[in-house]
């Protein structure tokens, strides 16, 4: 068994990691840290996990953390405090924060913070893009939730002529905003509402540009909060496309032929099909007047965070990437 | 008092017309038709209207309908059966169906149906665009819900250079689908979901093109259903825009300076601010890398249907356009 | 015109008062206080009210407040700081807090706070119970939201034999918890959830006992939060009832015969029928094995707070109680 | 491996059975029937199951059905057509319909239908009550969703003096109404609503009385639909209770000491803690003025249907009852 630890185990991403680890046939939970709940039983704080573990949250110093595998599920700028110690003391590390996803200089600009661990080598963990590199890496930066759904919806098209302008109009459940109550998570502010935010300048845009930009391609992104807890649906609009619908569909089928967690279908995908699961559903593929619409659906906390982290950890540990993740979502 | 009748009074649009008429200081409900509920008290079928009226639904023949003012709130292809009689027998008629919004030939193509009353003269009732023409018209075709929110979000920009490509990515509450249960209105299919549909070819696109197309301008439209009952939020993306944010804001402020029901603000608008009201809130106005984002929010059943119809009827009857509509929405 | 002021105008109850006052034919908004937003335009803070007023929030000292009519919409223990000044300087005062609803001694026990203005004479403003007393009062304590819906669902039965045990199992929208974000209003904690709280000892119970207790009658109350913003539906269970269903229905019809805002019907009422309106819908009236079920539906922010306060203010000012309130709710 | 079949595989209960079976370490899906979708790939009809199976729905005659284990997930009165054949040809059968839960005569009365297979011997599958009998049975009638949550919330109290009157006030997600769209599942009729129905006479009441009635004990039941897809929360009110809170808590802890899927805690349970899982959370345990409140939470489609059926099937097949069910729910 591989001993797995979670730094930051009581937030939404952390608790989702715990949910998956506790059900993983080859992982054993070694520790879950939480400053707020140190010493308290995990099942008391996260009652959905009662019976699955008797462990309590711990709060050791950074230097004491060790294990075969450690996940950091802490806010950006916090992960960089842990990572230098973890990569020393742990065989494999997956960071779920934003700290290492994009080059240091860009991170500092986009997140308006100084990086205390600049230039560290790491692999960007969009599994379907970098599987081979991930397999030989000991430190992976897990992608952001929006970039995961968005980039996967266009990756097969990037080599095609004319794919010069991509707009991602994304709709996310509110759980992406975390477990802490704020104005924007207040129920009456979400119910019967849909809220665009950072409509031209969301931080995840630079991550998207890193993955699918280049070649003078314009990449635009506007996220919206919908009255749902989980899920990200991204409507990708591409303009001046000269392919036809069948060609596009074939490109996607071929590209993702070996990717278990990517399900390509002609139908527009549904969040309910992926809820609680690591699957990415991609569909739509309609073209009219040169505009191509591709739609992707993920669970933001699974493929958009904890699930993809486990998928990467499996690969880093030479396990079948499906381990602990090979089950259907909750539908309805 | 102006005697007002509603053809098709038991659907969502019809009942919203009744709600407003029963509270209108100058309108008096003359009749509300319903084939399904003929003879039943309105308050028994629509319990929110109990106490506001003691009338019952009626079901006269088309020929018998008359009044100072009649609204048709029936499905497309049904309105054209009534309109020829109504325009004969009633002083003013507002049709809320799709039958007369676009030219006959285009209607037949887009809606796949033959028009039994082709070429009838009428004014397209986007109030803020056509107020003067509406004032002297006796027959108005009330706009679709999506085109209302979408077109108003870009009207002030149409004379500007470089506004050549507009994408409307709209999010609507499910009440737009009507009062009849279907697969797509089934609660578990809407909750925790967001559903793009007709992603390149929604029927309302031709109406949008009629209003804001032209000059080789590309107009695209993708609607989505969100887990809400009311409201349409449209995220309008314009590309290659050479204006700056202040110029855009000023264009909007100036254009809508005399339009009571259009509220222009820098903030991104919220559905809760317009819920149950006839207001259109427009905001956002961010530009980055040539892309301008403008967001509009309406209540699809009010400004998107019954409210705008009343606004038009007021104007057609030489009344203050605010009558019966001058109150705030429900927030939260 | 009657000049009306609101102390605490930016919370949910306060903003609902503003919504109604700004639409009231005989009231004119004199002031709305808000410490947090003093000096800011009301329409900037509460965008649904934009265009209805150009006033700004103010923050005068208690001593400066005066007007024909003042509403206090501040938390409990805060109202008692204002009321002694208001009753001096204002013709009519309606307090929407809990401070004066129940006798001082009981208030201190239930709310665990000392009362700084004990024993002040006031009328409990459950309109349908105390209309005559309200008409000659200058200071009214507006009822709690739960007691309003609960008590009205059993008032007609209190003189009947055998009505010795009443259980109110209530379901409320989350707006009752106020505009400030907390753990219990965090969207993911409300969505797909229903949360019983204070299951035997909610503070409103003592108010219910005051109104419908007595005669050794047992009164029980358990509130639940449902994933809705507005509305309270109360399922009232009465045991060992010897009446039959027709007798019960007749008792209710007779009792509320002159009460415009109480709509008695055999059907189980719906929240959508009262949403945004001052109506109370009461129905159900099923009896089996001695248990009677009566169900009431109100909008917690209207009949459960601001609407009933306006209704009371109308009566205190010798106006038709329907003024400013005589419109249908939003349905759907 | 045990070959498991599902009769009625495309409804909500059937698809939940498929979800669990496809993830079960000892079960192998032999067939899933569906008249509507016969011949179509399961993953095309239920896209959440894509990748988990390549099988298609089948539609054989009743006589042809055979397997080690068969579940019937068809409406009441339909199951009785299959069961006589299944019990002949299959080693173990679990019926998820209402047909065999209560005695034939009572079934005919409550469900208003003639029973074509009267008096058949079977075990009522409330696992925690009848585990031993289930272990030696080859035909089990799986309990209704409401009775499961309700009965488990009071079972430990039935031997106590004074427990003479129990009221179950239950709140259910709409998925209990099935996959077929109706008026009562129409999104605008559920959103911002809570709907009591069959307030004194729901069919599940007779099942509850069978399990927890007797000894002149009064058992009452009122169900409500809340705006959620999954979950049943039952608020159980017991009157004239002479125990204290600690005694009650201890009774529950002791009673369920060996029941893995029952989690007893002092806190009021949450639907999110059990969503998608087979756990029953029971808590509350407040007593005031003789009234005891106990609250239980289940996922209606798992412990309230498919999960408990699998739990029973495990036991009938001499497997650990946790197999295929030992994972946490989705929270948030």
Description:
The structure is a homotetramer of 332-residue chains. The first copy, chain A, is α/β, with parallel strands linked by helices and 332 residues long. Chain A has 2 domains: 2-121, Rossmann fold (3-Layer(aba) Sandwich), CATH 3.40.50; 146-300, Dihydrodipicolinate Reductase, domain 2, CATH 3.30.360.10. Helices cover 28% and strands 22% of the residues of chain A. Chain A is built from 11 helices and 13 strands. Chain A has helices spanning 12-21, 42-45, 79-89, 104-111, 127-135, 145-152, 187-190, 204-212, 245-255, 271-274, 302-316; strands at residues 2-7, 27-32, 67-72, 90-95, 123-124, 139-141, 165-172, 195-196, 218-225, 232-238, 262-264, 280-288, 291-298. Chain A has a 7-stranded mixed sheet. Chain A has a 6-stranded parallel sheet with strand order 2-1-3-4-6-5, sandwiched between helices. In chain A, α5 runs parallel beside α11 (302-316) and α6 (145-152) runs parallel beside α8. The longest helix of chain A has 15 residues, at 302-316. Chain A is globular, with a radius of gyration of 19 Å. Chain A starts with a strand and ends in a 16-residue tail after the last helix. The model of chain A has no long low-confidence stretch (mean pLDDT 97). Chains A, B, C, D: Keywords: Amino-acid biosynthesis, Arginine biosynthesis, Cytoplasm, NADP, Oxidoreductase. Chains A, B, C, D: The active site is at 145. Chains A, B, C, D: It is found in: Cytoplasm. Chains A, B, C, D: One of its GO terms (cellular component) is cytoplasm. Chains A, B, C, D: Its EC number is 1.2.1.38.
């Amino acid at each position: 068994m591989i001993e797995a630890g979670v730094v930051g185990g009581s937030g939404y991403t952390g608790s989702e990691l715990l949910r998956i680890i506790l059900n993983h046939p080859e992982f054993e939970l070694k520790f879950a840290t939480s400053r707020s709940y140190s010493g308290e039983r995990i099942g008391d704080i996260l009652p959905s996990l009662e019976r699955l573990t008797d462990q309590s949250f711990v709060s050791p110093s950074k230097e004491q953390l060790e294990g075969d595998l450690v996940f950091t599920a802490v806010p950006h700028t916090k992960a960089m405090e842990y990572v230098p110690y973890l990569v020393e003391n742990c065989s494999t590390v997956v960071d779920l924060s934003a700290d290492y996803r994009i080059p240091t200089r860009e991170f500092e600009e986009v997140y308006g913070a100084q990086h205390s661990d600049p230039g560290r080598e790491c692999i960007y963990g969009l599994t379907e893009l970098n599987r081979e590199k991930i397999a030989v890496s000991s430190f992976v930066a897990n992608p952001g939730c929006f970039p995961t759904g968005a980039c996967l919806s266009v990756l097969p098209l990037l080599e095609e002529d004319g794919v010069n302008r991509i707009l991602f109009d994304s709709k996310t459940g509110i759980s992406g905003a975390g477990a802490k109550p704020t104005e924007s998570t207040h129920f009456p502010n979400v119910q019967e509402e849909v809220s665009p935010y950072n409509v031209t300048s969301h931080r995840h845009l630079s991550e998207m540009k890193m993955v699918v930009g280049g070649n003078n391609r314009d990449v635009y992104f506007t996220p919206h909060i919908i009255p749902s807890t989980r899920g990200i649906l991204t409507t990708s609009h591409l303009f001046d496309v000269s392919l036809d619908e069948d060609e596009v569909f074939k490109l996607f089928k071929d590209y993702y032929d070996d990717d278990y967690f990517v399900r390509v279908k002609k139908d527009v995908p549904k969040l309910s099909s992926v809820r609680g699961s690591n699957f990415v559903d991609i569909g739509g593929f309609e073209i009219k007047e040169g505009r191509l619409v591709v739609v992707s659906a993920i669970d933001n906390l699974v493929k958009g965070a904890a699930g993809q982290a486990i998928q990467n950890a499996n690969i880093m540990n030479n396990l079948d990437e499906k381990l602990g993740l090979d089950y259907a979502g909750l539908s309805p």
